[in-house]
Design a protein that fits this description.
It is built from 7 helices and 49 strands. About 20% of the residues are buried. This is Protocadherin beta-18.
């Protein structure tokens, strides 16, 4: 950039050199041209060929060009025809500012030979600018006491155009206060002035606005406006005035301290310090001064001391408002003290009875109290009540006395205490109320008997228990309280006079625990029942009873007892079997019983030992001893069988039976010498004795069976004819071997027909079906004996 400036500087120096050097060659005539501003680039201005008398061919040959004094290329010379054309758009205001004639001087330079021609370019003004004020808003402050005719000078508008295109006139918007006056300045310009035509009153119109318009002389004319804001300044020409001369207020006597009583307000039409007001009391009494205070700025009157309607019913307060110019206004405040309901009712309890028994009669007096209210009128009238849904009510008695009485019977077991709230409400506005709480306890009366948790109890005891064993408990509750709820347990006399209850069980009188006093035997006593009593300790005492049923559970404490053949250590019983017997021949039957019950009495039979194994067999379920194969001559004549009888208890118990079997050719053979017998005469005599005893036993059994069969038939017929009962004689078995539950091998519930079977050549027992079955064997029907 610096080399470019240096070159331009050198070019100007060279041109100036030629200008001064060839001053004598400059044409003495100055050519004048004109052009309007803002014309487009390339606009035709003039033709130098016609004006300067040169040929068109010389323009290019002599290097003709245009040079302005400020060296700016405003014009350019067209060498083809000699026309001067605008090289850039011209702005007169930028070139000459406010100079009315804007002339730009330039020279037309010719070389070879060197020749200069002077010329000037007049830039004509056009109305392209609008008059403008320096400020869009003009603030004009005028006192409301200003005299009429006073002039107020306003800044003139500016217009960049000149001549007739400049500002030519001013106008003001219509208003009753001012008119516009134009003056000429030394520069020949016009400036406006406002002239006051009518007095100003700030209290009526504190401020207003005027529109000032400046118009130029162009065609069409242009105009500009500004807003004149006139502010009327105040003078103290108005005294303060209150809204009303007397303020009347009603203040409740219960108003708290520092509460707002009233707010007074005065107005002053003046402004500024002339309109600033200060409030104060004026000529007030000592009571007013100590009771009220006023805020000097806001005019709010506050309560300084408590009010009492009974002492002073009203106050008169004189107040004043003073402005900044010492002008003042006065008013009064009439304060009426209003009586309010500021005393709540009072309750004084005279008597109270607590607790009261639950069997109290209706309208029993529980409490007596009085009520009062220090207020008067409706504020002193009271209403007394208690809550609903309680068995009590209030009864008025004398003046303000009330009695709290029961309304209906009480039940401590449902509710043992009542929280009663006595509410006293006055009829004032607002209503005040007082509540008094009473806790009333209900004492117990023995009106509930003990109640067992169950009407009957079933206890299970395993036999052979240890004495003083805890076998169970009974429990009874009493809804009463205290000693009325203390329950004592006892055993009631049994209904069965033969039941030794006192030696069987005992009960703990305090907790109802039952204990077995002795070891129980299922085979002797399977179940018994008794009654238990529960008695409270009230007066009179109340009691109840429950049934207790004790079931003795069987234990496997009895071994099987073999009924046949007898195992009493006497002469053994010998069973005779013909050698011609077929396989499966019934030799005899082992009959056994078990004093236990259930599965403890389920018996099974097993052959433990035999003289010749494989010859005889025992059926496991019924104890029948049968031949297992055909007999031969080689088989020994005398056999000894050992049969095991075992129950199904846990642990199992067992017994053994020994059988003697003698193989004979027939029952007519009285004696068959045994292979292992000695030929001694003593042994033959013993065998004869045994045979005679056996025959006598068989004959006795047969006779007994026939008698028993006849008796059973007769009993069955008499039972069918009458009530169906039968008196069956007891069997020859001992009582302690009888299964009472009916689940043993041989029980009292089963009566058998027994006979001695003949014709087969052997003596055997035939066990027929039971005559009076009363239990079905558990597990379905009894399994039939399979073929041997």
């Amino acid at each position: 950039m610096e080399p470019a400036k240096a070159r331009a500087q050198r070019t100007r120096q060279v041109l100036l050199f030629f200008v001064f050097l060839g001053g004598s060659l400059v044409c003495s005539k100055t050519w004048s041209y004109s052009v309007a501003e803002e014309m487009e680039v390339g606009t035709f201005v003039a033709n130098v060929v016609k004006d300067m008398g040169v040929d068109v061919e010389d323009l290019a040959a002599r290097g003709a060009r245009v040079i302005f004094d400020d060296y700016k290329p405003y014009l350019r010379l067209d060498p083809r025809n000699g026309d001067l054309l605008l090289n850039e758009q011209l702005d007169r205001e930028a070139l000459c500012d406010l100079t009315e004639r804007c002339i730009l001087h330039f020279q037309v330079l010719f070389e070879n030979p060197l020749q200069f021609s002077r010329a000037e370019l007049l830039v004509k003004d056009i109305n392209d600018h609008t008059p403008t004020f320096l400020e869009n808003h003009i603030l004009l402050k005028i006192s409301e006491g200003t005299t009429l005719g006073t002039l107020f000078q306003i800044d003139s508008a500016q217009d960049l155009d000149v001549g007739k295109n400049g500002v030519q006139n001013y106008t003001i918007s219509p208003n009753p206060h001012f008119h516009l006056k134009l003056r000429d300045s030394d520069e020949g310009r016009k400036y406006p002035e406002l002239v006051l035509d009518q007095s100003l009153d700030r209290e009526k119109e504190a401020e207003f606005s005027l529109t000032l318009t400046a118009v130029d002389g162009g065609s069409p004319p242009r105009s500009g406006t500004t807003l004149i804001h006139v502010v009327v300044l105040d003078i103290n020409d108005n005294a303060p005035e209150f809204e009303k001369p007397v303020y009347e207020v009603h203040v409740p006597e219960s108003s708290p301290l520092d509460s707002l009583i009233v707010k007074v307000s005065a107005t002053d039409l003046d402004a500024g310090i002339n309109g600033e007001l200060s409030y104060s009391f004026s000529h007030i009494s000592r009571d007013v001064r100590k009771t009220f205070e006023i805020h000097p700025i806001s005019g709010e009157v506050y309560l300084k001391a408590p009010l009492d309607f009974e002492i002073i019913q009203s106050y008169i307060i004189n107040i004043q408002a003073i402005d900044g110019g010492s002008l003042f206004g006065k008013a009064s405040i009439l304060v009426q003290v209003v009586d309010v309901n500021d005393n709540p009712p009072e309750i004084a309890m005279t008597s109270l009875t607590s607790p009261i028994p639950e069997n109290s009669s209706p309208e029993m007096v529980v409490a007596v109290f009085s009520i009062r209210d220090q207020d008067a009128g409706d504020n002193g009238r009271m209403v007394c009540s208690i809550q609903d849904n309680i068995p009590f009510l209030l009864k008025p008695t004398f003046k303000n006395f009330y009695a709290l009485v029961t309304e209906r019977p009480l039940d401590r077991e449902i509710r043992n205490e009542y929280n009663i709230t006595i509410t006293v409400t006055d009829l004032g506005i607002p209503r005040l109320k007082t509540e008094y709480n009473i806790t009333l306890l209900i004492s117990d009366v023995n009106d509930n008997a003990p109640a067992f948790t169950q009407t009957s109890y079933t206890l299970f005891v395993l036999e052979n228990n240890s004495p003083t064993l805890h076998i169970g408990s009974v429990s009874a509750t009493d809804r009463d309280s205290g000693t009325n709820a203390q329950v004592t347990y006892s055993l009631l006399p049994p209904q069965d006079p033969h039941l030794p209850l006192a030696s069987l069980v005992s009960i703990n009188a305090d907790n109802g625990h039952l204990f077995a006093l002795q070891s129980l035997d299922y085979e002797a006593l399977q179940a018994f029942e008794f009654r238990v009593g529960a008695t409270d300790r009230g007066s009179p005492a109340l009691s109840s009873e429950a049934l207790v049923r004790v079931l003795v559970l069987d234990a496997n404490d009895n071994s099987p007892f073999v009924l046949y053949p007898l195992q009493n250590g006497s002469a053994p019983c010998t069973e005779l079997v013909p050698r011609a017997a077929e396989p499966g021949y019934l030799v005899t039957k082992v009959v056994a019983v078990d004093g236990d019950s259930g599965q403890n009495a389920w018996l099974s039979f097993q052959l433990l030992k035999a003289t010749e194994p494989g010859l005889f067999g025992v059926w496991a379920h019924n104890g029948e001893v049968r031949t297992a194969r055909l007999l031969s001559e080689r088989d020994a004549a005398k056999h000894r069988l050992l049969v095991l009888v075992k129950d199904n208890g846990e642990p199992p118990r067992s017994a053994t039976a020994t059988l003697h079997v003698l193989l004979v050719d027939g029952f007519s053979q009285p004696y068959l010498p045994l292979p292992d017998a000695a030929p001694a005469q003593a042994q033959a005599d013993s065998l004869t004795v045994y045979l005679v005893v056996a025959l006598a036993s068989v004959s006795s059994l047969f006779l007994f069976s026939v008698l028993l069969f006849v008796a059973v038939r007769l009993c069955r017929r008499s039972r069918e004819a009458s009530v169906g009962g039968c008196s069956v004689p007891d069997g020859p078995f001992p009582g302690h071997l009888v299964d009472v539950s009916g689940t043993g091998t041989l029980s009292q519930s089963y009566q058998y027909e027994v006979c001695l079977a003949g014709g087969s050549g052997t003596n055997e027992f035939k066990f027929l079906k039971p005559i009076i079955p009363n239990l079905v064997p558990r597990g379905g029907e009894m399994e039939k004996a399979p073929p041997f």
